[in-house]
Amino acid sequence: MNPNETSKIYAAVLDHVENNRLKDAFDTLKSWAAALQNWSAAEKISELETNYRYMIHYLVEGKKDPDQQKIYSRLVRGIYLLADDLSEQWQIRNSSALFFEKARIANIRQPLSLNEYRDIICQLVDTSAIIELMPEGEEKKSRLHQNSIKQEETVQDLFYSLFSSPRATDEEVKAYRDFTSHTLIPTSVKCMLISALTMNLLQRFDPKKFDFLLESCYHPESEIALRAVVGIVPVLREYKKRWIHYPEITGRLSVMADDAIFSRRLVSVIIQFIQAHETEKITKKLTEEILPGMMKLSPMIGKKINLEEWMGESGLEEKNPEWQKILDEAGLTDKLQEFADMQLGGADVFHSTFSNLKNYPFFNEMSNWFLPFDKRHSSLHSFFSERPEDDNLLSTLLNTTMICNSDKYSFCFSLMLMPEQYRNMMATQLGAESDELKKMTEEELLLNPNQQEETICKQYIQDLYRFFKLFQRRNDFVDIFSAPLDYHRLQPLYPVVQRTANLERIALYYFEKNNFREAADAYLMLTGMGSATNETWQKIGYCYQMLGMVKKGLDAYLKADLMDENNTWVLRRIAHCYRLLKEPESALHYYRRLEQLTPDDLNIQLNIGHCYLELDQYAEALNYYFKVDLLSHDNTRAWRSIAWCAFLSRKFDVAQRYYAQIIENRPNTHDYLNAGHVELCLLNTKKAVELYVQAVRSAGSLSTFQTLFDEDLDELREAGVNMEILPIILDKVRYDT
């Protein structure tokens, strides 16, 4: 049996269960267990199937069983777990994935129990406290360093032990609880336990571990509680079709939804996950637009700015206006402003910067990607101990909310490799910025009392993002950030997500990030909850319009119009949708309503003219076009409309006059072509050929011109042009080009 066969069989069992075909699921499991010679699993399958057949018998005999749904759910749970076990049996023997590699090692070398790890860590913490009482000196530093290394190695072993652990027993869950409540265990170590269990759950379904994660969401230490809240979201998604069969877990989530703090934290985490999906777009924009633009700009800056004047003594506080001018000319001002706005909005703008700094040996260990940043880590010992004078400066930067834990380690490793003179320069620059960074952090906390919690969530999710995108063995894991944006559709989270304020917040975030499909779905959920407002329908309409689903967009706009009849924004879009749907009469009705509300809006007048044109009411169309031309003398859109409408209504002299004006004001290919048609109708054949030649040059090729010309053949025929001479005229055009 090869990996593909195993995956197919596993997927087949899951498909049978999800489509309520339990007999097929049992048949597949029996064949699989026999192929693997797993007689213990075969016995469990037989037992489950016997129970299922009894249930069917009672049902067919008409005997009502109030526990039937519970029995069915227990059977489904059993099938899922047996499928997991059989899949793992093959993979533990054959898979090279890190999870199964660690599981094989654990089977060979029996790991310590969690209580034993707890005792060792407590002993190391006590030892550290005793060493701290020693007088300052090299011996104290050395002992602290050695003790720190022992503790880090123990925590690393603990992480891998939990990461590869089998399904938990009640006794083991109690050990988790004791570990995370122990006062001597450092918070950072407790955080690692939560991360290890989360990663374990993403590889192996374990309801007891998940229940402990839910319990940990209420941990008194916010760092631990928030890691647990972050952890439950990808686990809920990974097994989203199973939770319906675990009413004790979904019921617990329903109760937790009534807790305002948990609910707020969970919504914040969901939004941070949605934001993480934007990271790839941000990285692409930086690497393909902003940075190349800046690289092209640097030689230009050298030429346009006098560097000697720039470095002069006078006017140091003044910014050179040439800098802004150069940025404007290069088209970078708006992009840099967009980048700054993204950063202020909490976007992960540093991923592209630090993604190239994950090649240090430190990042070869999976566990290190989840470490909370600690400047006392042994790998940073030489960095901070050699330059204590820079400690405060670096601490200021490393405590900033803008950089996640993983990137802080990368930053320090990069500084450690810098020559001394560059490190000194960096320290000086950090010193100049340290007060400003502190001030920014304080202001953030004043503006948002929950800022610290949101920062912890954001940084941890960014750490997870870097692990799943950059870890050298990332292909051994299913990327939780490549899944669809359906956080609002995770049924176990409905008790929280389907509260109006929470769903509005999630929908708005989708909308602001241009995730229009997800935004429309979330807003539609709001309408189904009876929470629809005029704005809700407006946004649904806009989302559908952006997705090219014009009819659905129109239906939503019409609902918005029923709630607010005089909203000009809505009326414009309704009219525009009708035009796109080739219903000019309906579009005209809404443009007429707009005309009453905004009589001075020339764009509305122009669109009314377009509707009349599409209805073949040329005289009415020309009246509106002439009105726009009268009130706005340089409106080339009005000129084009008048010229084409005049052509269609056989007023060739009017069309000729307006096309002459257009040709003098940045004409395009269609202008030359249409002007040629007018001259042809007026029997000015020579002038028509000249204009057609200009149209060819503007189009860039004869073939493009020919395509455009052919599209107008019906109009030329109806205008009375002698169609027999057209091939000759076109040959003349070919000769002249």
Automatic annotation (TrEMBL):
The keyword Plastid does not apply. The keyword Lipid metabolism does not apply. TPR repeats lie at residues 568-601, 602-635. It comes from the Bacteria. InterPro entries: TPR-like_helical_dom_sf (IPR011990), TPR_rpt (IPR019734). Pfam families: TPR_19. Keywords: TPR repeat. Coiled coil: none annotated. This is Uncharacterized protein. It comes from Petrimonas mucosa.
